[in-house]
């Protein structure tokens, strides 16, 4: 999979993609993440990527020309399955959406800033708009990092124990059961006996029961679809 992220602040993305699972996924060649600096596509001498809004009002709007030039150049090199704009009014990111996006070949992710992008970008270049939650961030970079993390960890081979991603919360519409590690007893707080029993079938049964109970208690609406 290849992900091209278009941003005016490329350095904001260095850290999320430079460590741990996302870094290893790139090193293993399972995903290619290419961060594109939108300023490189600004055609005036000030390298401006934003301008005042028509009609007045507060805040700046990201200009259509640099974004058009950038996306069109990327498209001359390969075809893209989706051109995504991170936006608080987009479709809410959830696990089924991450699952679906993880099966794609090439995607572009556009990060907004200021008041957002000129509407003509959304009308003519964007195929999908995604929100990571009902709140407003100052820029799309952190949202893009969240989206990409949720996608990349699902690509086969990225997480070494490949059953691990499938046993996370929301896969199967169930929250994850509680987990424990050593010591088996701390300050008198004991790990459930069944987990120490070595009896795989009983452990699976216990985990399913607790996942169901936790889902019923915390997110009952997830069980309605089952
Ligand atoms: N004026 C816009 C918000 C702009 S916030 C509005 O009210 O809808 C600036 C940028 O941050 C957006 O263009 C978007 O790329 C990003 N952003 C902010 N909140 C986000 C969210 N919840 N999900 C995804 N992207 C978000």
Question: In words, what does this structure look like?
Answer:
It is a single chain. The chain has a five-stranded parallel beta sheet. Strands 3-4 form a two-stranded antiparallel sheet. Helix content is 35%, strand content 18%. The chain has two domains: 151 residues, 3-Layer(aba) Sandwich (Alpha/beta knot); 57 residues, Orthogonal Bundle (Trp Operon Repressor, Chain A). It is elongated. The longest helix has 19 residues. The protein is α/β, with parallel strands linked by helices and 226 residues long. The protein starts with a strand and ends in an 8-residue tail after the last helix. The chain has nine helices and nine strands. It binds S-adenosyl-L-homocysteine. The site of S-adenosyl-L-homocysteine has 18 residues, from strand 5.
Features:
226 residues; alpha/beta; Alpha/beta knot; Trp Operon Repressor, Chain A; 2 domains; five-stranded parallel sheet; two-stranded antiparallel ribbon; 9 helices; 9 strands; 35% helix; elongated; binds S-adenosyl-L-homocysteine
């Amino acid at each position: 999979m290849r992900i091209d992220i278009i941003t005016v602040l490329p350095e904001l993305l260095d850290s999320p993609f430079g460590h741990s699972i996302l870094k290893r996924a790139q090193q293993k060649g399972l995903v290619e993440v290419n961060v594109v600096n939108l300023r490189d596509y600004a055609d005036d001498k000030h390298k401006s990527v934003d301008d005042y809004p028509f009609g007045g009002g507060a805040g700046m709007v990201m200009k259509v020309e640099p974004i058009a030039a950038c996306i069109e150049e990327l498209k001359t090199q390969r075809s893209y399955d989706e051109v995504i704009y991170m936006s608080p009014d987009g479709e809410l990111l959830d696990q089924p959406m991450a699952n679906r996006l993880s099966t794609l070949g090439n995607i572009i992710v556009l990060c907004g800033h200021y008041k957002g992008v000129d509407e003509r970008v959304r009308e003519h270049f964007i195929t999908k708009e995604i929100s990571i939650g009902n709140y407003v961030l100052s820029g799309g970079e952190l949202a893009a990092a969240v989206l990409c993390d949720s996608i990349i960890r699902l690509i086969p081979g990225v997480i070494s124990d490949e059953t691990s991603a499938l046993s996370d919360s929301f896969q199967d519409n169930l929250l994850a059961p509680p987990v424990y590690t050593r010591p088996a007893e701390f300050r008198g707080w004991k790990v459930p006996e069944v987990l120490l029993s070595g009896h795989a079938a009983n452990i699976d049964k216990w985990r399913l029961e607790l996942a169901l109970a936790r889902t019923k208690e915390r997110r009952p609406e997830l069980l309605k679809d089952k």
